[in-house]
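User: My instructor asked us to take a sequence, write out its structure as tokens, and then describe one feature of it. I'm not sure where to start. Here is the sequence I was given:
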Amino acid sequence: MRMSDLATETTAPESAQLLVSRGLFAWRGGRIFLFGERTAGRWILARAWRDQDRLTDVRRWSFADPETFARQIGRLAREEIGAGAVADLPAAALAWAVAEGGVLDPA
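Assistant: Let's start with the prediction itself. The structure tokens for your sequence are:
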């Protein structure tokens, strides 16, 4: 993948940034990075802490549906930089997941 393949959207506060491409959801804000992908029919989310020029303390989650994936992204981002700054992030994550072939629960 080339950097030119990524769509970039800066969100408030200025330290937060959303990057999306085919196959990869990435967000950074505060001290964390979030990476999402779809693998073998599961929604995979990883969180890493930034320590100077390295990523450390990586944790990974796996979800069966895109809604739970998007909610977890919102929760982790809210914990790091606050609710107001990431109000639209779960919707952006869900839109990305749907574009990646995710099927929403009709209930």
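For the description part of your assignment, you could build on this observation: Confidence is low (pLDDT under 50) at residues 1-14. Try explaining in your own words what that tells you about the chain.
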